[in-house]
Amino acid sequence: MKRTYxxxxxxxxKFVMHYFLIGPEYELQRDEFLHLDQGDxxxxxxxxxxxxxSWISYVIKLLGNxxxxxxxxxxxxxxxxxxxxxxxxxxxxxxxxxxIIGASCVTFSILFRLNIxxxxxxxxxxxxxxxxYFIVKYLNTEKSKWIYCIxxxxxxxxxxxxxxxxxxxxxxxxxxxxSERKVLLNNHxxxxxxxxxxxxxxxxxxxxxxxxxxxxxxxELSDTQLVNxxxxxxxRSQFLFFPATFPFLIxxxxxxxxxxxxxxxxLLFWSFFFTIGIFLFFKAKDYYAIGxxxxxxxxxxxYISKLLDNKVGxxxxxxLVVWTIVAFIPVYNITFPNKSPQYIENHFDKYRKLGxxxxxxxxxxxxxxDFADMLGWKELAKKVDSIYIxxxxxxxxxxxxxxxxxxxxxxxxxxxxxxxxxxxxxYINWFDLNIKxxxxxxxxxASERNKELKETALYFQKSxxxxxxxxxxxxxxxxxxFSFVDAKIDINERIKEEIEEEKW
Length: 504
Fold this sequence. Notes:
5-stranded mixed beta sheet; 24 helices
């Protein structure tokens, strides 16, 4: 019962802390808007992610679509990750100290940063951790039911984010390298594989029917974002994710190699390095690898509890627990959007030295990219609303944006019920062509706004540059809103042409 109360305390701390990690100046992040709109267009797949996030978005909308519920689910997945690590430590025979130190390492960590955003990443980490837990259960018992649990967990992870494939790719050579290759003779392994395949088949069919957009998305990522990824920065980031508790991870890996009681789990030692190596080979983003770590905190916690099982250990144990919490304070003070943009601007060097100001374009900016992606959206929606109500006919007005962040933010914050669209991301499939459009509100990126009026005004009776985003800290700073009234052309036909061209 004592253990249950302590675990419950960790989970409560996890939930409560989440509502102190984002300052009032910040809004939802651009990816969150896209994921929320996917809940209005349920399908077995999307251009950038699999379907699970859309199912969660649908539930969020049923619950009222408030910020509370948007933030609740990633926090829930973070809390469940703590729970799975706790259960892993119990499975490994860890005592109360091992449970507390392991839960502390996972709770007071960069996972807070991951769990503040409504993205597939939080559930991805939970799926990685749970899958590893079931592997531990199988290695411990050799009961076939755990193979089926692994298969189901993989399927959920796959339908949430394809990233979980890297776990399996890292596990395969590790199996051949250890005595666990005997599992290849277990018929249940192949039945489990078939079960996983059946569960993910609807998404594979969707991918096939839509010409496998996942590959197009990966190619686009490679050309625009991953091209700026430096392998050395990837390695450095792995140390920075858990700066104060990284020694526990090292101990966890070391114990798998040297601790006799963990010999049966050595498969996980080799899979760690194979998985990291695959990430490095593909020049993956650094945070893709975060899901690999929580399970190794479990091994490290049990191992260090064994090392400190003496009189001296009785003095060191509470110090280590306090250390995991105190060491989180500087992380709390700098890695979360709980400081104003002005504060970050005034402490530029502190953020720059940690590499937090380098964006996906490889350049340094005045705010971390995620923070800048949480500004300017309410301003945009309010200004679009004010233009929208002045249009001759709102029903026949198309709100067309340059990117999914703009479209999603307008859809979420608009007071006029606007359903903005874009030729970017999944919005390209969400145009309502049953409406005959005569007017357009065009939201244009700052870098391309100068030519918009000149090129588009030819096709309308009235045209003007109406407004723009003025928050200089926003990534969308300078994004401009144009209004075009009374089309001289068939807008719907132009939309169809653009959609076909983009898809082609």
